[in-house]
Amino acid sequence: MTELLMTVFSATFFVTIVRTSTPLLLATLGGLVADLSGALNVALEGMMLVGCFTAVIVSVYAPWYVAVAAALAAGALLGAVMAFFHLRLKADIILVGFAINIFAAGGTVFALTQATGGDKGTSINLVSKAVPALDLSFLAGVPAVGDVLVRFLSGHSLLSWLAALLVFALWYFLYRTPWGSWLRGVGEYPAAAAAAGIPVNAVRAWGLLASGALAGLGGAQLAMFNYIGFTRDMTAGRGFIALGAVLLGARHPVGALLAALLFGMFEALSVVMPGLFNWMPAEIIRMIPFIVTVLALVLFNYRAMLARRMMAGAR
User: What is the average per-residue pLDDT within 44-71?
Assistant: First the structure.
């Protein structure tokens, strides 16, 4: 137990939490935007997976930032597809989302075989690039706390810093701009928004595009920093965990950040615990993030039920 506590409170474990939380945070922010617009995006998993594959393939032939932009665009394109089928063709958004997930799972494997000459599992034969880490070693000159700052803050992906900035940017957009009010109004009461002259379908379409772009960005972090390369189904349920994080975070950007960090912490534990507890099956340890997701959904549902009872009692 002492060894576990030493590991948990170390700078290395903090860096691992940030690394594992970043793809979840980006996907969670994407899920939050779609959810607030009234369009639940269950395709986050597929959008992340396509983002992973696109980032790796493009990075073989182009600079890393072009690959990241391509992953973002691929996620946004799937968001546009989702918006077209749901808003224009009136298809059920849940079914469209699961269709995109199935397409992504099979389509990336097929595309991988074409890109690698027959390999269906991994892009190991392709030399892909990585997102650079931000070097903050100059902080070592800060008196008394310089070394601590370097250990905790230096070496994180540029996308990790971008994700942190996006939390503030999204909060500002949602609660300090008229467009954010439009988005929230469309999600809360679309009839009233339409009566006020707000284009409901257009707002939801842009919400789905932004949601897909953020999920694709999370895929780029996963395939170009957490791991270097593409592996079949490498998202491993992170898109569904992001949906749970949206609910656990009370549909708020800061709550989404805290929920993503919580899930990232448990994923980081699943990485370090097999080396500390050899008697525990590794499969049980890897189940921790998914168990926490289920518990988060149960907690959210219980909290929503209590809120409905309080509102009913007030009436």
Answer: 95
Of residues 28 and 4, which shows the higher confidence score? 28
> Rounded to an integer, what distance in angstroms lies between the CA atom of residue 110 and that of residue 233?
12
pLDDT above 70: residue 280: no
Tokens 């002492």 sit on residue: 2
- Exposure string of 81-103, with b = 16+ CB inside 10 Å and e = fewer, is bbbebbbeeeeebeebbebbbeb
The listed range with the strongest mean pLDDT (188-192, 281-285, 289-293) is 188-192
Using an 8 Å Cβ cutoff, are 145 and 158 in contact? no
CA atoms within 13 A on the CB side of 151: 10
Q: Which residues contact 187 (CB under 8 A, 6 or more apart)?
A: 35, 36, 37, 38, 39
Higher pLDDT, 226 or 304: 226
Q: What contacts 82, CB < 8 A, 6 or more positions away?
A: 39, 41, 43, 93, 96, 97, 100, 208, 212
Report domain extents, the chain: 11-235
Per residue in 195-226, pLDDT tens? 888 999 999 999 999 999 999 999 999 999 98
Burial 44-61 (b: 16+ CB within 10 A, else e): bbbbbbbbbbbbbbbbee
Q: Are 19 and 265 in contact (CB under 8 A)?
A: no
- How many C-beta atoms lie closer than 10 Å to residue 177's C-beta? 11
Q: Are 130 and 225 contacting, i.e. CB atoms less than 8 angstroms apart?
A: yes
Higher pLDDT, 233 or 271: 233
- Which residue type is seen at 66? V
∠ CA 262-221-71, rounded to 5°: 130
Q: How far apart are CA 267 and CA 236, in angstroms?
A: 12
The counts of H helices and E strands in the chain are: 14, 0
Residue whose C-alpha is closest to residue 112's, from 65, 161, 49, 44:
49
pLDDT of residue 295: 78
